[in-house]
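User: Can you fold this complex?
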Amino acid sequence: MSDCIFCKIIKGEIPSTKVYSDEHATAFRDIQPAAPTHILIVPNRHIDSINAMTADDEQTVGYLFSVAKKIAAQEGIAEGGYRLIINTNADAGQTVFHIHLHLLGGRRMGVMA
Ligand code: 5GP
Ligand code: ZN
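Assistant: Here's the predicted assembly.
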């Protein structure tokens, strides 16, 4: 998607602090971190949101969780714990319409709101 900010980050057209990338997924630090570790893990292929997911996307989206596990270990937060979030549409506060898994850690999380 030509006007998608995360597609541009994946292609390196917009700067970001990347912490991981491979053929299927890319991970970079959130520009406005909500925790000491706040990383966004995105599929390299553009998918708007979980609502736009098809059966063909199941492997791709599931793979984001494998990457999250790897990065949590890399960041030293695997033992202490971390939270994984995917916001979908307005009520959840989705602002970027390219599926992204938030990896949050490095502090004690509050209850879900
Ligand atoms: P959402 O609210 O859609 O689940 O999360 C979007 C996230 O993307 C937000 O946490 C926001 O700070 C982050 N974000 C938005 N624009 C950029 C950007 O240009 N670079 C980076 N690294 N993060 C961004
Ligand atoms: Zn995109």
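Residues 35-106 form a domain with the HIT family, subunit A fold (CATH 3.30.428.10). Strands lie at 18-21, 25-29, 37-43, 82-85, 101-105.
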